[in-house]
Q: What sequence folds into this?
């Protein structure tokens, strides 16, 4: 069972970084200290009126002086309200929640495949990794690409794929990953839309490579109580699968655990 805290957290920065993407920094000392790469926080966004559910966001970064940062995309009501909050306002934050990525060991080269706001989930992993590797960033178009420079500044080699070819390789980011699969000593990580995570799972099936993939399931309680976030994982039973809670046993799953029924 993971250890988590509820913390009244003051906003110290909330700014647009590109298009619909924002960065928000909270003073959130207890959670920042406990945070591990791949974990998330459940944010009670202030001024949401009767809409009481928290919203889950990956922990993008933490600093030694207690700042916890999130990169978020405005997609609906909650994230729209979040984007309007001002410095000094307080949100109740629960975290750090979920499991985490394993840090690459010396001799292992991380290959991180990330799509959209998934790039926020793997940043702390790259920051903590002793060996530098590649980040394959995918997006619909160049306006949706985020965090390229931030990964480059960590010493990672960044390759880009866009669906419409407006930047980098024209096509799916999983096509780029396919080039590296035969390389020895790589460790594969991924976060992005579930369709992308399931595509990676499919690519690795029947190979000796196992990826750590963060799945993006809608969440309700975020702490393992409601079973609203389950995914199918491989099991040794009649059906061949069972449910696991993405918020509790995930959000990071090994690719050979993920059950594909299509
Ligand atoms: C573990 C985890 C980590 C996440 N990390 C980030 C992050 O770092 N940055 C970021 O921008 N977003 C992240 N998300 C997605 C984020 O939680 C949703 O975008 C957010 O809850 C939408 O809230 P809303 O009120 O604006 O949207 P709503 O008005 O509730 O919904 C708008 C649209 O967003 C979809 N949506 C709602 N909740 C989710 C969800 N949990 N996952 C996917 N789609 C959803 C709805 O189906 C709908 O299409 C993460 C989700 C999970 C589960
Ligand atoms: S969101 Fe409630 S169990 Fe996962």
A:
């Amino acid at each position: 069972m993971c250890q988590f805290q509820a913390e009244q957290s003051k906003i110290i920065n909330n700014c647009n970084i590109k298009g619909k993407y924002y960065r928000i920094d909270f003073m959130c000392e207890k959670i920042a200290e406990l945070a591990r790469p791949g974990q998330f926080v459940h944010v009670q966004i202030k001024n949401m009126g009767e809409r009481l559910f928290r919203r889950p966001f990956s922990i993008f970064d933490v600093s030694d002086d207690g700042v916890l940062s999130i990169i978020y995309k405005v997609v609906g009501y909650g994230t729209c309200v979040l984007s309007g909050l001002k410095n000094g306002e307080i949100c109740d934050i629960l975290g750090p929640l979920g499991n985490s990525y394993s840090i690459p060991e010396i001799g292992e080269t991380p290959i991180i495949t990330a799509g959209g706001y998934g790039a926020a989930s793997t940043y702390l992993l790259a920051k903590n990794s002793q060996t530098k590797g590649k980040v394959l960033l995918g997006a619909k178009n160049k306006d949706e690409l985020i965090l390229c420079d931030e990964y480059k500044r960590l010493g990672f080699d960044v390759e880009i794929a866009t669906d419409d070819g407006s930047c980098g390789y024209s096509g799916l980011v999983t096509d780029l990953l396919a080039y590296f699969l035969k390389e020895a000593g790589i460790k594969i990580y991924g976060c992005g839309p579930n369709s992308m995570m399931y595509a990676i799972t499919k690519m690795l099936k029947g190979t000796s490579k196992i990826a750590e993939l963060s799945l993006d399931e809608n969440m309700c309680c975020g702490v393992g109580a409601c079973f609203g976030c389950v995914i199918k994982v491989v099991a040794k039973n009649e059906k061949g699968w069972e449910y696991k809670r993405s918020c509790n046993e995930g959000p990071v799953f090994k690719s050979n655990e993920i059950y594909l029924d299509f």
In short: Residues 194-204 form the longest helix (11 residues). The CA atoms of residues 224 and 248 lie 5 Å apart. The chain has two domains: 5-97, 109-254. Residues 40, 55-58, 70-73, 75-79, 117, 120-121, 216-219, 251 surround flavin-adenine dinucleotide (ligand 1) (CB under 6 Å).
